[in-house]
Specification:
The chain is an all-alpha fold. 70% of the residues lie in helices and 0% in strands. Among the domains are: 96 residues, no CATH class; 56 residues. The protein is built from 17 helices and no strands. The longest helix has 20 residues.
C-alpha cells in the first residue's frame, strides 16, 4: 500500500472502494453453476437469493446495481437480496456473478471476517422469526454487511487491517474500536457507514447497520456480536456468548435458550448445551 494512503480517513477509503469492481467468493460461483445445471429453466430468484445471502461481496454488488436502477425508476428501496435479484433479473444476476473476479480468500484475516459475516446472517435468519419479524431477510442482510468496512480493508488494504489487529494484541488498546482508531484514525464501523452512504444503500438498511436505533437494529447488532464471539478463540468467548444470549432473550422473552443455540453449527452440541445452561442460570439469578 502506498504510504500516503495510510493518512486517508474513512470517507476517502469509502470513495476509493466505490471505484472498485468487487469480486465474489469462489464457492458462490460453484454453487450457482451447480444450481443452474440442476434447475435449468426452473431456476428461480429465491434460489439465487439464498446463495447470495452467504456472500457479502456479491450482496454489495447486487444492492449497488439494484439501487442504481431503482433511482432512475423511482421505485421502492431494495432492502433484501431477493428484491435485488428480482429487480435485476435472474439472467443478469448470473452474468454479473460469472463475470466477476474471485476473491483471494487465502489471507487469514479476510477469510475470518467473511466467514463471520456469513455466520451473522445465518444467526439472524434463525432468530428474527422468533420475534415475529415481518421480513427476517432485511435483518439478515444487515447482519451480513455490518463488517463491510473491515472486509474491504482486508481485501484492498490488508496492512491497515492488520495494523489494527496488532494494536489490539499489543495491549495498547483494550477494545477493537479503540485499536482501530489508534491504528487507522477511524473505526471499521465508521468506514462501513461511510460506504453505505456513498453507495446510496437503502435508508432502512443503514438504520439497521447503526445497531441501536430500534429493536430490529439491536437484533442486528446482537447477531453480529454473537457471530464474532462464536468464532473467537479467547478465554472470554463463553462469557460473551452468554451475555449475547441474555441480550437477545430480552427481545424474545418467550424463546428458550436451547432454541436460540439450536442449529448454530459452528458450535458443537456440547458447547451449545453448556451455553444454554449457563444463560438459563444467569437469567434465573437476575430475575
Amino acid at each position: 500500500m502506498e504510504a500516503w494512503k495510510k493518512h486517508w480517513g474513512a470517507s476517502q477509503w469509502a470513495a476509493f472502494f466505490e471505484t472498485k469492481k468487487l469480486p465474489v467468493m469462489t464457492r458462490t460461483k460453484q454453487l450457482v453453476s451447480t444450481t443452474v445445471e440442476e434447475r435449468g429453466e426452473q431456476l428461480a430468484p429465491q434460489d439465487l437469493a439464498a446463495i447470495a445471502l452467504g456472500d457479502p461481496l456479491l450482496c454489495l454488488q447486487l444492492l449497488r446495481e439494484a439501487e442504481r436502477i431503482r433511482s432512475s425508476r423511482l421505485g421502492t428501496e431494495t432492502t433484501t437480496v431477493l428484491h435485488a435479484v428480482m429487480q435485476l433479473g435472474v439472467d443478469k444476476v448470473c452474468r454479473l456473478l460469472l463475470n466477476s473476479a474471485e476473491a483471494d480468500a487465502s489471507a487469514a484475516g479476510f477469510a475470518y471476517v467473511e466467514a463471520r459475516s456469513a455466520l451473522a446472517a445465518r444467526v439472524a435468519m434463525r432468530w428474527a422469526p422468533g420475534r415475529a419479524d415481518l421480513n427476517p431477510q432485511e435483518v439478515a442482510l444487515a447482519a451480513l454487511l455490518t463488517d463491510t468496512g473491515e472486509l474491504l480493508l482486508w481485501l484492498y488494504a490488508p496492512e491497515l487491517a492488520q495494523a489494527a489487529l496488532d494494536e489490539l494484541h499489543s495491549g495498547r488498546a483494550s477494545r477493537s474500536a479503540q485499536a482501530q482508531s489508534q491504528a487507522c484514525g477511524f473505526t471499521f464501523k465508521e468506514l462501513t457507514m461511510h460506504c453505505a452512504e456513498i453507495w446510496n444503500l437503502p435508508a432502512l438498511l443503514r438504520k439497521l447497520l447503526q445497531g441501536a436505533a430500534s429493536e430490529r437494529a439491536l437484533l442486528t447488532r446482537i447477531c453480529t456480536d454473537f457471530a464474532r464471539h462464536a468464532m473467537s478463540r479467547d478465554d472470554t468467548a463463553t462469557q460473551a456468548l452468554v451475555a449475547d444470549l441474555l441480550a437477545i432473550r430480552k427481545l424474545m422473552p418467550n424463546a428458550s435458550f436451547n432454541w436460540l443455540v439450536e442449529n448454530i453449527s459452528e458450535l458443537d452440541m456440547e458447547h451449545r448445551l453448556h451455553l444454554a445452561a449457563l444463560a438459563e442460570s444467569a437469567y434465573l439469578q437476575n430475575n
